[in-house]
């Protein structure tokens, strides 16, 4: 398990090709991903799957919205928006479901749970031989895009998890030094 944790790394979406996980493999991934710590057992998350033609269709709508947000946006940037969801064969949107009437479990803790799902998904994808990336960007926060994806007023996007078969081995990056991050508390 430690070896798997230590080997985890993101694969940029642009380097994720077909094949993506089939239905059974995706469900296998989700079975691992939903085993997250969850204060109050609220299950404050759900998934939205974007595959096939839906990826390009979403990209077109995102590009149109990008143009509305910034009429001076260049054609290069617009094309990038059109292709935003078309690299990997599967984009799984992890949606945080945040019941406003839940006064017992702080909202931030329910968000932590949804974020943990994203991380667990990355690990499950890699364990099954796929590459994955947790991305957000402005389309994770834009009210019109959230409406287009069918999010309710009390839902937020925790992440777009792009999943596919890595074209190349992703380069490792420098990791934080835990020694520098650890301190001991002593009673004052
Ligand atoms: C909530 C969240 C959102 C992120 N959004 C983006 C993003 O939009 N674009 C991006 O390049 N990286 C984004 N990242 C970073 C990548 O997922 C990834 O962590 C980074 O490329 C480093 O790779 P690593 O996972 O191997 O450390 C995000 C990470 C988190 C936790």
TrEMBL record:
Enzyme class: oxidoreductase
The keyword Oxidoreductase is annotated on this UniProt entry: yes
GO molecular function: oxidoreductase activity
Family that this chain belongs to: Belongs to the nitroreductase family.
Top-level taxon of the source organism: Bacteria
Annotated residues for binding of FMN: 8-10, 35, 39, 134-136
Residues covered by the Nitroreductase domain: 7-164
One Pfam family in the UniProt entry: Nitroreductase
Record protein name field: Putative NAD(P)H nitroreductase
């Amino acid at each position: 398990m430690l070896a798997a944790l230590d080997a985890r790394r993101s694969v940029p979406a642009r380097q994720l090709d077909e094949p993506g996980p089939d239905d059974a493999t995706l469900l296998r991934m989700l079975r691992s991903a939903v085993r997250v710590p969850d204060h109050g057992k609220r299950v404050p998350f759900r998934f939205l799957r974007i595959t096939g033609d839906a990826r390009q269709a979403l990209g077109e709508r995102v590009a149109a919205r990008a143009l509305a947000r910034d009429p001076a946006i260049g054609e290069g940037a617009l094309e990038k928006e059109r292709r935003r969801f078309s690299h990997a064969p599967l984009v799984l949107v992890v949606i945080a479901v945040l019941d406003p009437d839940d006064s017992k479990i702080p909202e931030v803790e329910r968000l932590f749970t949804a974020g943990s799902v994203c991380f667990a998904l990355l690990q499950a994808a890699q364990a099954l031989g796929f590459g994955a990336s947790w991305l957000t960007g402005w389309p994770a926060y834009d009210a019109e895009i959230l409406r287009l994806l069918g999010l309710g007023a009390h839902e937020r996007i925790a992440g777009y998890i792009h999943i596919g078969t890595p074209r190349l081995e992703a380069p490792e990056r420098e990791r934080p030094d835990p020694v520098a991050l650890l301190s001991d508390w002593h009673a004052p």
